[in-house]
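Bug: token stream looks shifted between consecutive jobs. Job 1:
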Amino acid sequence: MKLEKPHINIKSIDAMRVIAILAVVLIHTTTRTLEATHYALTGYSWTLFFNQISRFAVPLFFLISGFVLELCSEHEINYLTFLKKRFTKIFIPYIFWSLIYYFFVYTNNHDNLVRVILTGNASYQLYFIPTLCIFYMVFPLFHKIYKFIAHPLILISFGALQFWFLYQDYFIKHAGFDSPQRIATLSFFVFLLGMIAARNKNRLLEFAKKWKYFLAGAAGYAGYYIFTEGKNLYYQIYNIEAIYSQYRPSVFVYTILIGLLFFYVFRNVNLKKLSVLSYFVFFIHVTILENVWRLFSKFVSPNPFFDITFFLTISATSFLIAFLAHKIPHLSKLTG
């Protein structure tokens, strides 16, 4: 199949990137509330609900990454040039913020700095970046064998394998290796789907337009199912991974549904200016959260107004700082 000529700006992707980072912030703000209440899930159902319906965030980021990389790779690419360009854009800010968190925010980290950088353990949101780097390294291979991986039988096989990995990891036992390899194993299929979506974006848009009401209903049901699944499993095994993990079969399906829906709904919404700030927000919002929590911790309440206010405060502050930082020439090359 011939690769379609990419547009310079696909509005849906910018919007989805903004939504994904907001979902990340919502996960982290509601998690802080759940921790403060010692996981009193019955009394804080709204907090848990917001937390669980946001679990598409990181898988959606991987899907977007596969989409954008494939869209920008119409021609044969030089592997070393590709790595240099991508790692400069992604890895330099990652190193900068890892140092900030390691030396100034979470100073009780007992791992050595090299291991922290390789695993993304300087702060809890950074685990995503080493996994993304793995996908960047294997992308040229995936791009080269696209016709093989896009064959329906191969694609279905990969999807079934991904589903099995997720089921085993969530319901049976965690994979026997650490992040980022574990996260890459549990996320590779959504990255591949992003690549395939890039080559079939017009067809997907037509599909989503035709089935938009079904997608909305299915995504809504999937979100509610994830909420009840996490709560019920937590009470069965009393393990916070039951609600923390976004690597489960239900979230896998939820991400695909909500990605298709967003791709259609936001096709004419221009969030480019916010999208370019999202990487900085991804890095800084935890620092903002740690400082603002000192005030909000005094007013923790099961009222959903508390969760919404806390989330909006962290989001607005993070985007404002990102906006101001991007006004400083060349700073974004260091900070994202």
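Job 2, same session, no restart:
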Amino acid sequence: MAAASFLAGDWGTSHLRLVLCDAAGDTLESVTGPGAAAASGRFAEIFSELTAPWRRQYGRLPAVLCGMVGSNFGWQQAPYVHCPAQLEQIAAGCVSPPGAAVHIVPGLACSNRHAAPDFLRGEETQILGALQLEAGLRRGRQLLCLPGTHTKWVILEQGAVTEFITAPTGELFAVLSGHSVLVRKPAHGEPTLAHAAGDAFELGLSQFNAFPQAPLLHRLFECRSRMLAGELSAESTGAFLSGLLIASDIGGALPLLAQGAGDARVCLIGTPQLTTLYARGLAQRQCEAQQLDGARAARAGLTQVYQQLTAGARRRATL
């Protein structure tokens, strides 16, 4: 078994996943815990409890954390790095809570195409990891999509993030599924954008694309009206809604950010379930999609930050 070198953690709003890694970033063990929202005021305590078995076995190891742990309600706020930004800059922007061998990764900020402030936190680490996993993303202009609660569409220029825009696609799905009469709420678990299957999802995609000029607001009631007309079962209304939302998300982002209609190529980074749905939506627009696993990309990004921090410490020690 390889020697443990550091801890990598994605501490998001709803959950924490900590991974014990060797020097190359390979997973040795992992543990989960409460998200940043539930950890308010108890970050140090929770981190200490979860990592105690590893400390007893391996001693005190450095940790690199990304996500909402660095937000204004996190353990310690990590200021945003403003775009355009080389992703390597995020190591220099890490902050450490007093007395902890913990490095918290900053997010990114930009002014988007709508002249509005925009922010991301956590996704910067996945993007950095994607650049390590796919060297081709460092060349030329690249369009990335990180689907989720707040989907991020990101422009890379020679490996630097120049701009991005956010669509709350997953959040809108959850709100409408859980608090409206438009769709049937899933029998088990919280509604998520990935609750889509088969013909109803494809119908949602194709129906939105058949009338691309129609605002999304004028399409949403179809989730209910097509069920009342017998075209959809009550159980499939969520999948139809997912198709509508993803088609709307893609239909808004491609004309805004892609270099040319019909020849766009998008790198999708996220859970396999979500990236597959977005790939199906992109295919309906004759757009090529590359899929990268978000957890793998995040771990590669955190490893890159750890290696940069280690190299920096060695340089300072020789001065």
